[in-house]
């Protein structure tokens, strides 16, 4: 199986989420275009992401609510919940823990080709971010890291790096809203349209 | 952004962060570099608090040069201060020189055996080294002497959660609720843990505590959602007969209404149209009635 392609928007938003809460674990949902019934040989492409939590990742009720809402939103948009990302609290910890594994499996039950992304904290620096996450897929005997065959061209990578750097420089991570922010105040929009626009302008 | 800020503005922001214990280390460092560093002689006695604050922020951002500068200045002003030595310990920690850090804290504890900061830092080291079960053990010991340290109970709860030990995590919250029966957040978190554990008995407990959280703070959306989820669950799977199911159905309809009102009154229409929250809740409610 080839590794999934990740658009600039999904890439930047998930790293902005980690940058907004550097002292906490964060997680979120990756969205892909719904290709059901359509021929698609291009492989999986993550077009967007929804940042979920930074307070407590291991409790289920708010996660259920978040997934219900995101699912309802996706159906209207021709998108589908297709993956999960997590950045752990401990700087040196880039392993899959129980929470990631459980949520990842649940997503895979509903979307067969789902992947799990774990942010490699050590590779996220303000001036150079390359291959900042590990990509895992579920095999019979557990989660296995996917070999990167360079599905993304180096030009893509460069664009992502430049875009993220510009976003971080302007402090755009402060504008990113996750589902925890949404639950604090429903006006906080987890779709992050403003950040999306900013990313569009930069690319 | 930070360049145009005046000294007094920067000062106010830092003071606000100190009072509210906001952790925005990156901004603190930016303010320090762009405004405060060159004007520190104008800060008066506030300077020492600012040094302490900037030092902690610098450690967060791995800016060791700035941290060293702050510690040096504080050390000159307050030689032998335990508070300054704590910062030194934290500098070791940030560099991952844990043995040196531990020595620093141990020597603080030799002088002042009830120093809670040094004790907590030592537990933080265990956590940083991913020795979670040892950290849990030490934190339990610590809480025997500092029973009213709410943050510590909360931390212990999260450590237990990371180990999937829900019963002990719930116990920490029970302690917190006992000391602060009017804090809705503790009720809410307790309920979230019980809900996560699952099973009719736990979900009934969850419903009760979510309800109490809503009563204490009707604006707590997490608690409303939790109340909605747990009563919806019981409306389908309660083993206490038809009457109990109907009662729970009523509860969930009430919660749904509260949640929908919140969205309708607060979220802009364009957002509602795309996120479809109202319809989503409506659908869940309908599925209960069909049961």
UniProtKB/TrEMBL annotation, chain A:
InterPro entries: EMC8/9. It comes from the Eukaryota. Signal peptide: none annotated. It holds the Pfam family UPF0172. One of its GO terms (cellular component) is EMC complex. This is ER membrane protein complex subunit 8-like. The gene is LOC106069733.
Automatic annotation (TrEMBL), chain B:
Keywords: Coiled coil, Endoplasmic reticulum, Membrane, Repeat, TPR repeat. InterPro entries: EMC2-like, TPR-like_helical_dom_sf, TPR_EMC2, TPR_rpt. GO terms for cellular component: EMC complex. Residues 84-111 form a coiled coil. Residues 85-194 form the EMC2 TPR-like domain. Pfam families: TPR_8 (PF13181), TPR_EMC2 (PF22890). Its main location: endoplasmic reticulum. It is found in: Endoplasmic reticulum membrane. It is a peripheral membrane protein. Part of the endoplasmic reticulum membrane protein complex (EMC) that enables the energy-independent insertion into endoplasmic reticulum membranes of newly synthesized membrane proteins. Component of the ER membrane protein complex (EMC). Belongs to the EMC2 family. This is ER membrane protein complex subunit 2. The gene is LOC106068075.
């Amino acid at each position: 199986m080839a590794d999934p392609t990740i658009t600039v928007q999904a890439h930047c938003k998930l790293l902005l989420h980690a940058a907004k809460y550097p002292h906490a674990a964060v997680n979120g949902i990756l969205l892909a275009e719904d290709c059901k019934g359509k021929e698609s040989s291009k492989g999986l492409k993550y077009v967007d992401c929804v940042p979920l939590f930074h307070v407590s990742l291991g409790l289920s009720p708010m996660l259920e609510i978040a997934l219900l809402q995101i699912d309802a939103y996706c159906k209207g948009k021709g998108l589908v919940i297709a993956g999960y990302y997590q950045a752990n609290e401990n700087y040196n910890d880039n392993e899959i823990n129980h929470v990631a594994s459980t949520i990842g499996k649940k997503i895979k039950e509903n979307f067969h080709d789902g992947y799990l992304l774990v942010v490699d904290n050590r590779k996220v620096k303000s001036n150079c971010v390359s291959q900042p996450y590990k990509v895992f897929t579920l095999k019979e005997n557990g989660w296995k890291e996917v070999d990167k065959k360079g599905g993304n061209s180096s030009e893509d990578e460069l664009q992502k790096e430049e875009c993220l750097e510009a976003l971080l420089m302007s402090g755009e991570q402060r504008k990113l809203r996750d589902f925890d922010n949404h639950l604090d105040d429903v006006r906080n929009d987890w779709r992050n349209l403003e950040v999306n626009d900013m990313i569009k302008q930069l690319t | 952004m930070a360049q145009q800020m005046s000294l007094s503005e920067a000062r106010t922001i830092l003071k606000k962060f100190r009072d509210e214990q906001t952790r925005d280390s990156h901004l603190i460092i930016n303010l320090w570099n762009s405004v405060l560093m060159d004007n520190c002689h104008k800060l008066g006695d506030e300077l020492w608090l600012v040094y302490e604050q900037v030092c902690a922020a610098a450690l967060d951002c791995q800016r060791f040069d700035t941290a060293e500068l702050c510690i040096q200045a504080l050390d000159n002003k307050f030689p032998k201060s335990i508070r300054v030595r704590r910062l030194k310990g934290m500098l070791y920690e940030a560099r991952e020189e844990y043995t040196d850090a531990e020595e620093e804290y141990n020597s603080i504890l030799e002088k002042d055996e009830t120093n809670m900061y040094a004790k907590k830092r030592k537990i933080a080291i265990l956590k940083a080294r991913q020795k979670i079960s040892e950290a849990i053990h030490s934190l339990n010991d610590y809480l025997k002497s500092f029973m009213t340290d709410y943050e510590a109970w909360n931390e212990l709860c999260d450590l237990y959660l990371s180990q999937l030990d829900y019963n002990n995590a719930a116990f920490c919250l029970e302690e917190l609720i006992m000391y602060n029966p009017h804090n809705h957040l503790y009720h809410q978190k307790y309920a979230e843990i019980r809900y996560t554990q699952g099973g009719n008995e736990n979900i009934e407990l969850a419903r009760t505590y979510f309800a109490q959280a809503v009563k204490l703070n009707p604006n707590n959306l997490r608690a409303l959602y939790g109340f909605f989820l747990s009563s919806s669950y019981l409306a389908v799977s309660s083993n206490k007969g038809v009457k109990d199911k109907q009662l729970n159905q009523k509860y969930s309809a009430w919660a749904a209404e509260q949640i929908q009102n919140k969205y309708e009154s607060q979220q802009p229409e364009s957002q509602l149209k795309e996120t479809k929250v109202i319809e989503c809740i409506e659908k869940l409610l309908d599925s209960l009635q069909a049961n």
